[in-house]
Specification:
Helix content is 54%, strand content 7%. By secondary structure, the protein is an alpha+beta fold. A four-stranded mixed β-sheet has the order 3-1-2-4.
Amino acid sequence: MTALTKDEKWNAVVHCDHSYDGIFFYGVKTTGIFCRPSCKSKEPIRNNVEFFDEIKEAYAYGLRPCKRCRPDLTAFRPMLDVIEKAKHIFDTHFADGGRLTAQIKELGISQNHFIHLFRQQFQMTPVEYINRLRVENAKQMLVNTELTIVNIALLCGFGSLSTFYEFFKKQVGLPPKKYRKQCSTDKG
């Protein structure tokens, strides 16, 4: 590959072109930060920019890595990290709607963007995922405890008995009472 000109590099920076990531880095003298060409930070003034073919050159120049595009990491996928954190929150707090909502808000991502990313990663919406967790937990409780169906529905995070029945039957194919009865006959 022929060496890129400064104009070609500048053009890649201006257009946040990720196809140049790893080929070169750019540093901004006034901020003391270096970035990937695809960084979405504010466009710098061209006279304040230096280009580097390797990260070590940027460090030697006295620059530090950008916290937004993380040029110091080989793979940087911040949205995947956010989705993994959300999944962990769901797995841990699926039965506590208030806590779940509060912790998801702390991730700092818009609801629509979050739903889109979650669906892209897990092929279902966050609500569908949470309801699956709740139903799976309810199945375990129906088989392993003597709790009433109402108590199980509430302990699993369903706001009402009718909602619980609706989701349970849709996912399992049986109402909770029949499921419990069938599982106890299968054990016996």
